Amino acid sequence: MAPSKLQLVFSAPLIALLFLSSALMASATSNGTSARSLAETSSQSVFSLDSYGARGDGSHDDTQALAKAWAAACASPRPAVVLVPGSKRYLLKLLALSGPCKSSVTVTVKGTLVASPNMADWSDKDRRHWVVFRSVDELTVNGGGAVDGNGETWWKNSCKINKAMPCKEAPTALSFHFCTNLKVESLKIVNSQQIHMSVEDCTNVQLTGLSITASGTSPNTDGIHITRSKDVQVTNCKIKTGDDCLSIENGTHNLRVSQVVCGPGHGISIGSLGDDNSRAEVSGIIVDTVQLYGTTNGARIKTYQGGSGYAKDITFQNMIMDSVQNPIIIDQNYCDKAKPCQAQESAVEVSNVVFKNIRGTTVTKDAIKLNCSKSVPCHGITLQNIDLKMEGGKGATESTCQNAKWTKSGTVLPQPCSSKNWGMLISN
Ligand SMILES: *[C@@H]1O[C@H](CO)[C@@H](O)[C@H](O)[C@H]1NC(C)=O
Ligand SMILES: *[C@@H]1O[C@H](CO)[C@@H](O)[C@H](O)[C@H]1NC(C)=O
Ligand SMILES: *[C@@H]1O[C@H](CO)[C@@H](O)[C@H](O)[C@H]1NC(C)=O
C-alpha cells in the first residue's frame, strides 16, 4: 500500500475507515468482469452448467451437472471456463472437482451455488467438506456470484449451540487442496456450515475481493483457514463471521494479508499450534492494513504447551481496532480442551514478532497480553507505535508481559514487564 494512503488512514481515521470500507464492499460484490477477462473468455472454451442438465431452481440436485461440466473443462486442451450462469441457484451436495487438468480452468460463478439444507444429503463418511477443488494447477474461481452454505441447520445442531448434541464436524464450504497458482476473486461466501474457505497444501495463492458473511453467533465459522501452504496473498476482503476472520495454521510460510476488514468474529489468529505435543512450523507472515470491528481478539498467536517447532518472522502492522476485546495477544499457554492442559516444558518457539502502528479501542483493559512459556520464552518481540485506548474513554489500558524477551537496539526488557505506562512498553 502506498505510504500516502497510510498517512490518510492515521490522520483522518474515521473518514478513511468509511472510505475504505465502502471501497472494499464495492469490489467484493462486483462480478469481476473486466475488459481483460471478457477478452480472455472469447479465446476459451466455455462449459455452462445449463448445458449439462442443471436446473438452477434451488431445489433440484445439480451436483452431477457441475461434476460433468468440470470433467469436460478439465479435459479441454484449451483454457476452459466452467460457467455458473447468473440469477439462478444451483443446489449441490458434497462434490470434489479434481485435477490435474489439461489446461487452466476458470470457474466463473455468476449465480449462486447453494448447499443442500437437507441433512439426509450429508453422509457421516465425510462431514468435513462441501465443494473441494483438488490437485489443480492454474485454477481461478471468480464471477461475483455467491456460494451459500445454508449453514443454519448445522449451527443449530452444533454442540457449541446445543449442549445435548454430540460434537461432530461440519463441512467447509470451499476447500482447495494441493492447488498451485490458485486465484479466488470477487466472490461472496455466505453462511457456511463451518469454515468458509480452507486453503491446504497449496502454493502460490491469491485470494482477492472476497466477501464472507455469517452470523456473529454461528459456531466455528472461520472466514479463511490456511495450512501447509506457501506464497499466499489475501487482499481486499471483508469477513464477518462467528469465528476467526483468518486462521493461520501449521505449515503456512510467506503469507501476506492486506486491506482486510474483519468483524464480528474472533480476529486474526496464528494457531493454535503445538497441540497434543505436535510440531509446528510457521514463518514469514505479514498482516498489514487490517481493520477489526468488535472482534474478540485482534492480532493473536496461540500455542499449546508441549509442542515444538516455531512461529517466527511475523509482522502485524498498520491495523485499526475498534472495540476489540484482546487487541494484541501472544498466548503460549493456550488451552481449549475439555480437561485443563498439563504444564509442560517444551513449547513452540515464538520469535521475531513485530506489532507496529496499531491503534484504536479495546473493551477490556488488557490491550497487550504476552503470556509466553517459562521454559521457551518468546524473543525478538517488538511493540512499536501502539495506541490502544479504552472504548468510550473508560480508564487506562494495561499490558502484561510474561517470559517475553524483547530486544530493541540491544536492550532486553526486564522481566516481568507489566506496566500501565505505554512509555515503558513502546520502544520508540
Ligand atoms: C456483471 O457482468 C456483466 C457482463 O457479463 C455486466 O454487464 C454487468 O454490468 C456486471 N454487473 C455488475 C453488478 O457488475
Ligand atoms: C506441522 O508441520 C510440520 C512440518 O511440515 C510437521 O512435521 C508436523 O507434523 C505438522 N503438525 C501437525 C499437527 O500436523
Ligand atoms: C498466563 O497463562 C497462565 C496459564 O494459563 C495463567 O495461569 C496466567 O494467569 C496467565 N497470565 C496472565 C497475565 O494472563
From TrEMBL:
Subcellular location: Secreted, Cell wall
Record InterPro entries: Glyco_hydro_28, PbH1, Pectin_lyas_fold, Pectin_lyase_fold/virulence
GO biological process, one term: fruit dehiscence
Single GO molecular function: polygalacturonase activity
Annotated signal sequence range: 1-28
Top-level enzyme category: hydrolase
Keywords assigned: Cell wall, Cell wall biogenesis/degradation, Glycosidase, Hydrolase, Secreted, Signal
Catalytic activity: (1,4-alpha-D-galacturonosyl)n+m + H2O = (1,4-alpha-D-galacturonosyl)n + (1,4-alpha-D-galacturonosyl)m
Chief place of localization: secreted
EC code: 3.2.1.15
Keyword Chaperone: no
Top-level taxon of origin: Eukaryota
Family per record: Belongs to the glycosyl hydrolase 28 family.
Alphabetized PANTHER family for the sequence: PTHR31375
Entry protein name: endo-polygalacturonase
Protein species of origin: Urochloa decumbens
Record lineage: Eukaryota, Viridiplantae, Streptophyta, Embryophyta, Tracheophyta
